[in-house]
Amino acid sequence: MNEAIRELQPKEVWNKFADLNAVPRPSKKEERVIEFMLNFGKSLNLETFKDHVGNVIIRKPASKGMEDRITVTLQSHLDMVHQKNNDTVFDFENQGIEMFIQEDWVKAKGTTLGADNGMGVAAIMALLQSSEITHPAIEALFTIDEETGMTGAMGLEGGVLKGDILLNLDTEEDDELDIGCAGGIDVTATRSYNEKTVPRATTAYSITVNGLKGGHSGIEIHKGLGNANKIMNRILYTVSNSFMLRISEIDGGSLRNAIPRESIGKIVILKTQSEAFENTIKELTQTIQKELNVIEPNLKVTLDAIKLPKAVMGLGAQERLLQGIYAAHNGVYAMSAAIPDLVETSNNVARVLVKNGKAKVGCLTRSSVDSAKTDLSNALKSTFELARFDVEFSGTYPGWTPNANSKILKVAEEKYIALFGEKPKVAACHAGLECGILGQNYPEMDMISFGPTILGAHSPDERVSISSVQKFWKFLLNILEDIPKK
């Protein structure tokens, strides 16, 4: 299956992507991919080392005749988001990604593909290995843990990098040049609750919300995609107002930067209310499906009878949990007044876990305006504190302030027009790129971000366009040929 990928053009890039995807590389467990990259650099007899947090740096001298050009730092992250469909059996920590071709797209079999940011990594590897490509002195920076905290970029010390220009290869639309991005902060609400004995004369059900598209909680937050945690909460809140419903467990969502695709709730209901309860769930499901039909045509809500649980939530804690999640903002909070069509501030209610006397709600709040990020995170904090949760802020990272006067931006714009006959979109994105963090220790470094078209990132629907990779590779090589002189 993966051998067909190696025959795609440009072969040098797709072969490196296939090599990379054979190496398990979950965020925070990058030991194997770090070793893989160190061995790769050393096999080419290039200066190769690992910094104190695990980032890998590989340096390659300039091609003959390019020695007088500015040194370029090429940057991508090694880790990938791990998501799979419920019916897919896959061990991310021990298996390589299984890929296949469908028309103009490369996809993975029931899992995330890792094109985010594996295509960028593969392109840099191809450049490092080539003996034919014309380029200035290259410094490859492969960061770790971008997807779950950006700790690699945060841990990179000043003075390590030698480049004056940085090309970040982590943008996911091939007609876009990014010059800014959102910052983010994790908002985590936790509380304990008293478990109670299951009421008499009750029957138990599991409620499953699935079939949602999911996706990147920054880039795709404006699409109005269904959030399984909010849908589950809406169902439980609505039904609890009419029936004697008690919650035993909720398990919804997974990663902070992925829009939740699935949620499972386990509840009990009075036996005498069972028929009316099932009918109400059916009617409510139809209402929600009708609301989301255009954007989420495959949404399903399934009800199954299960064994009675050992315990349920206390009624007061249950009410506050449902009220807190219902009130918590999810989705776009504000659009940018400075940049047309740019989401300025948003929140993703990413994770809900209720079990064994503990409740946890995890959110990722993003904004390109630092004060707005603080405002929304404080609003969420207030919401959950009213529901008697303890709230912690963590993992904050800065945005990347746009520089419209960037010299490398002008080079890239001119190259794009010459190659493709139209102007690129110069924009800021609502995702979290590492440029803002890297810029703190390298404030004079001139940065832009670009990449091939990738859809469905952070979900099992992730796919990368084959023709777009060809376009991206051509664009990258042409930029490197025209890097300014020192």
Instruction: Please identify, by name, the CATH architecture of the largest domain.
Output: 3-Layer(aba) Sandwich
Strand content: 25-35%
Q: Say what oligomer this is.
A: single chain
Q: How many helices in DSSP terms?
A: 12
User: C-alpha Rg, in Å?
Assistant: 24 Å
Q: Got a strand count?
A: 25
What is the CATH class of the largest domain? Alpha Beta
Q: Portion of residues in helices?
A: 25-40%
Largest sheet: 9 strands, antiparallel
CATH topology of the largest domain: Aminopeptidase
Average pLDDT taken over every residue: 96
The CATH superfamily label of the largest domain reads: Zn peptidases
The helix-and-strand class reads alpha+beta
CA-CA gap between termini: 46 Å
Shape: elongated
Please mark out the parts with pLDDT under 50 across 5 or more consecutive residues, or reply none. none
Question: What is this entry, summarized?
Answer:
This protein has 486 residues and is α+β, with helices and mostly antiparallel strands. It is built from twelve helices and 25 strands. The protein starts with a helix and ends in a 5-residue tail after the last helix.
